[in-house]
Amino acid sequence: MRSTPPRRRRSRARLTRRGRLVVSTACALALGAVIAVIVTSLAPDEHHTEPPQTLTIPEGWRTSQVYEAVDKALGVPAGTAKKSVAQVHLALPQEARGNPEGYFFPATYLITRHTTPVSLLTEMVETANKKFSDRGVTTGAQGNALNVYQAVTIASVVQAEAAGPDDMGKVARIIYNRLSRGMPLQMDSTLNYGLNRSTVHTTEQDTKVNSPYNSYNRMGLPPTPIGNPGARAMQAAVNPTPGDWLYFVTVKPGDTRFTSSYEEQMRNVAEFNRYHQAARITSPG
Question: Phi/psi at 23 (nearest 5 deg)?
Fold first, then answer.
């Protein structure tokens, strides 16, 4: 991701870190892996001879991944869960315009012989609404001049970008700082969402695509969440860590650096490039 100083001059420097994506999210998404964690429960269903199952939705999964996981968990044809959304009125905010992205709350859900795609997806949305209507969330959103849907959108970007829970508050603060200064977010995560991909390799041509999710050439937040954030990302979005940071990069796993200095960011990015170039040279194959 490329960074620009507050005066918005062009640069090839990355705004956000790619290290975390290299070691976690990108590996799964780039390979097209969608893994539903289906765990056998010890408590039997009184109406069924076999024990029920549970489906765990990880934090940050996109809605497309949730649909696929639901189809697999319930043993229904691919595409059934997505089609079922059109058959039911989900309790989504008006701003969502019927798009459930961000509202399939990451949690573990019980599956019995009575579970259907509609009932399961409805439960996920109901869980999200319960979590997002918490007084701490609504008050925090209002304190940052946001509605809850905008807070969910920020949380989804934080979830995708932060190297871990300890970094979430700082990443959220960078989003606020850049918005308040009239700077584009320049987040690879939003661009990748619009392109229906996940990659650490963003080209100059990529940053010029005509997409409402291209935060390189579009100001403000993306039009919708870019995934389904968990509780920690949501708390970071409504209660960001105080600071004046504008840039960050994960030089290597466990070493994420935040700064308000463009020059320091350039030095950190150069170190990031050296580290990953060395890793490619020394890696087998």
Answer: -90, -10
End-to-end CA distance of the chain: 27
Q: What is the dihedral of CA 139, 137, 241, 143, to 10 degrees?
A: -20
Task: Give the number of other CB atoms < 10 A from CB of residue 99.
Answer: 15
Reported for 275-280, long-range contacts at CB under 8 A and 24+ positions apart, including other chains, are 275/251, 276/19, 276/22
pLDDT tens-digit map of 126-142? 999 999 999 999 999 99
Q: One-letter amino acid identity for 33?
A: A
| Six-digit token string for 199 | 């990659």
Are the beta carbons of 138 and 150 closer than 8 angstroms? no
Segment (H or E) for 30: helix 25-30
- Asked if 246 contacts 174 with a C-beta cutoff of 8 angstroms, the reply is yes
Q: Write down the mean pLDDT value for the chain.
A: 85
Look up residue 23 and give its amino acid.
V
Partnered with residue 258 across adjacent β-strands are 248
Among residues 5, 13, 23, 27, which one has the least CA distance to residue 255? 23
- Written as six digits, the tokens of 183 are 């700077």
Going from N- to C-terminal start, the domains of the chain cover: 19-28+163-282, 34-132
Q: Which two tokens stand for residue 217?
A: 């050439």
Task: For residue range 205-239, list pLDDT tens digits in order.
Answer: 999 999 999 999 999 999 999 999 999 999 999 99
